[in-house]
Design brief:
Strands 1, 2, 3, 4, 5 and 6 form a six-stranded mixed beta sheet that branches. The protein is an alpha/beta fold. The chain is globular, with a radius of gyration of 16 Å. The protein is built from five helices and six strands; from the N terminus they run αββββαβααβα. The protein has one domain: 2-Layer Sandwich (Nucleotidyltransferase, domain 5), CATH 3.30.420.
Length: about 130
């Protein structure tokens, strides 16, 4: 059931990739990317497409295809993501490719869970040295 908020409000686009078993092939794993949107206090899972390669370009293309299936490309105003290099790279990151595909800048919101992991890792390294 399609929810009205996704067509009537600015949205944040969330995604996260995982290696999962392929439901069409036996004992094979594939890269999948969960694509969600949030806005106006609501959230909705749009899809979990398979991607050929876990690169920023392929992630951006999969997300854009999913948005086009829902016809909500114009509502997206920000990107919420974890801080892996495939997302944050200035040349080959998924966020950069996505902004290029939409031909506009977005607000980048790095997931605080991963940001706190980076802070904690820096503190532990300062206290105990490199591991």
């Amino acid at each position: 059931m399609e929810q009205e908020f996704i067509h009537s409000t600015p949205l944040l686009l969330h995604w996260d990739g995982k290696l999962l078993p392929d439901i069409t092939a036996s004992k094979e794993t594939v890269d999948k990317i969960a694509v969600l949107v949030t806005g106006a206090g609501e959230e909705m899972l749009l899809g979990v497409p398979k991607i050929d390669h876990d690169t920023g370009k392929h992630q951006a293309e999969a997300r854009l295809t999913t948005l086009d299936e829902w016809d909500i490309r114009q509502q997206i105003c920000g990107l919420v993501f974890d801080t892996t290099a495939s997302n944050t790279g200035l040349k080959n990151g998924a966020c950069t490719f996505f902004e290029h595909l939409l031909d506009r800048e977005m607000a980048w919101v790095a997931c605080r869970h991963y940001v706190m992991e980076l802070v904690l890792a820096s503190i532990l390294q300062a206290l105990f040295g490199p591991t």
